[in-house]
Predict the structure.
Amino acid sequence: MIAKLKGLLDETGADWAVIDVAGVGYLVHCSARTLAALGEVGEACTVYTDLQVSENDMRLLGFAEAAERDWFRLLTQVQGVGSKVALAILSALSTGELQQACAKGDAAMVARANGVGPKLAGRIVNELKDKAGALPGGGKAGGGVSVTPAGAASADAVSALENLGFKPAVAARAVAAAQGELGEDASEGDLIRVALKRAAG
């Protein structure tokens, strides 16, 4: 199975991107967050992938982070959640926000995603509540759930840079670089400080 693609961003659409890997273009369906993180057309990018095969379709899904792919796989295990709905949820919520919603049983937060009604949102948080802590963005399995999940700080830092006028792709890249430099436990303030230097540079 194709697990990861590393190449050049060739083209993008509303919910997809084409990644050119050594002259071969791979069409990957993505969340809005992943599309924003990929950068500009012609730039190098990496996506973690999940291949879904059905009777009449074969579809490659792409994610900017392995954690987002893990959540996608978990979401699509819930009855009534296909790849389109899962991507809509991951477009509306960061992995940290999704983890927090499931941990607290906050169906209203999940229902913010397009195509997700209250009944489906309730099913999602109920089924994933016990699994949320085992995935990135939550506490360790069996060790309780973090109230401020990892991932929330980076999502807030990206929003802060966007509010300052930076493009979503630039903000996402700068925060990702800052997190790589500071580590996953970095605070929102530290991430913003370092990301601003990266984005301005």
About this structure: The longest helix spans residues 168-182. The radius of gyration is 17 Å.
